[in-house]
């Protein structure tokens, strides 16, 4: 139940909670744009520094590694001091990171700025901590609330690529990043000040999902460490697959002769459709649960990746990019809901941060790996096949965990006590 001394307007599912959700979406739109910005400037950075595609992909990998690892640290700061203070720190460091990236004299300086400032100290404050914070402010509609929160990340992907590409063409990538740094610090800092209130305390059992799943000290009939480990492997694998189109679609279109601008438009369309997917998946998640939503998203993502193989015309690629966005947008938010459904509520914040870190590490690994496969083969065809193989790992884990849940329920083949 809500804490007796909590202001009435600061209760779970209150009007304030929804206002806070809107601010959170705006913060994610601004704060998580780094992963899309670096994808757009990748061809320009590669050309200016005279490096190969794998080296040009390293800043993205460093950013995502920093993003993921920093999310755990920022989450602990949020647990102790409230989410506002990590966000203010992130706003400052993200802006400085963009400026230093724009002033860098080589790929290693650019990579360091992206990994340490943009990723570890910047964007990390605007993903995991805000996702975990959102789960604390909603009980009845946690699935759609988390989906709306996470959609801020994809709104960033829809908004920033065409804007960044325009300014890169007009002013150059260096001036674009410096200007973006100033804007980011001011915008995030102002929004962060609106999140002073701490999450309300509420009944640990109030988060039982509509489909009847109850948290357990043995999630899926496994030890908590083993269960979380499987979710982390699934998170890495699905995001290795997911990163292939998201990181390399601009470069892919450039190689096909369509130009970087067309690639930026495809990326924008892909992630705009991802926003729709996240909202629809949130509604579905409230009905069927996080684990089934994960399996559904992984299957559909695999279908979209397969469709990239036979088509390389501009119009078909626009269509497949839209399908990819529509199919995979609900995957990452489902992990936060899975943790809240199956693990003890007192552990949810730290475990959500850890699993989300795994998804970001998957994006980082996939971004670099796809570039390396391209360098080795001279084609993105093998990179798409690599993504499909990783995607099958996620499907297998999700299906296996779902079978365990069914077996452990009353009337299943195995009683939970026997597990």
- Sheet with the most strands, sense and barrel status: none
Question: In DSSP terms, counting alpha (H) and pi (I) runs of 4 or more, how many helices?
Answer: 15
CA-CA gap between termini: 32 Å
Order of helices and strands: HHHHHHHHHHHHHHH
Helix percentage: over 70%
Unreliable spans are 1-6, 202-211, 413-419
Overall number of strands: 0
pLDDT average, as an integer? 84
What structural category do the secondary elements indicate? mainly alpha
- Please report which band the strand proportion falls in: under 5%, 5-15%, 15-25%, 25-35%, 35-45% or over 45%: under 5%
Compute the gyration radius: what is it?
Answer: 21 Å
Shape: globular
Report what the structure shows:
With 419 residues, the protein is mostly helical. It is built from 15 helices and no strands. The protein is globular and about 55 Å long. Mean pLDDT is 84; it is low at 1-6, 202-211 and 413-419.
List keywords for this structure.
419 residues; mainly alpha; 15 helices; globular; disordered N terminus; disordered C terminus
In short:
The protein has 15 helices and no strands. It is mainly alpha-helical and 419 residues long. The protein starts with 14 loop residues before the first helix and ends in an 11-residue tail after the last helix.
List the helices and strands and how they pair.
Blueprint: H1 15-31, H2 34-49, H3 53-81, H4 84-103, H5 107-120, H6 128-137, H7 142-171, H8 173-192, H9 224-256, H10 260-288, H11 290-308, H12 314-328, H13 331-342, H14 348-377, H15 381-408
Helix pairs in contact: 1-7, 1-8, 2-3, 2-7, 2-9, 3-5, 3-14, 4-5, 4-8, 6-7, 6-14, 7-8, 7-10, 7-13, 9-10, 9-11, 9-13, 9-14, 9-15, 10-11, 10-12, 10-13, 11-12, 11-13, 11-15, 13-14, 14-15
